[in-house]
Amino acid sequence: MPGKIRFYLDEHVPRAVVQGLRERGVDIKTVGEAGLLSAPDTAHMQQARAERRVIFTQDSDFLRLHAAGHTHCGIVYAPQGTSIGETIHGLMLLHQILKADEMEGHVEFL
Question: Which domains does the chain have, with CATH numbers?
Fold first, then answer.
């Protein structure tokens, strides 16, 4: 999984974050674009893994799945209430300093 991180954004991520990342040239896919609105979290993990994408979420259920041993290409978690600016800044920082293979099976907290 070499190269830049590509993100898979959970359905609760504000649209402004999606726009901000795209304006900065980040490769992202939203849950809606994947056709998986309201799907179980395990389906999102499977989709992201199939496309070699790092999940960005504000849903702590993904942290429980990670702790239970579910495989993934990386999870970035930010608690609810994290501002749009902080979220974009944090994701851009990860995108700039980490390679996709460094995120494999790893969780980062914003």
Answer: 7-109 (3.40.50)
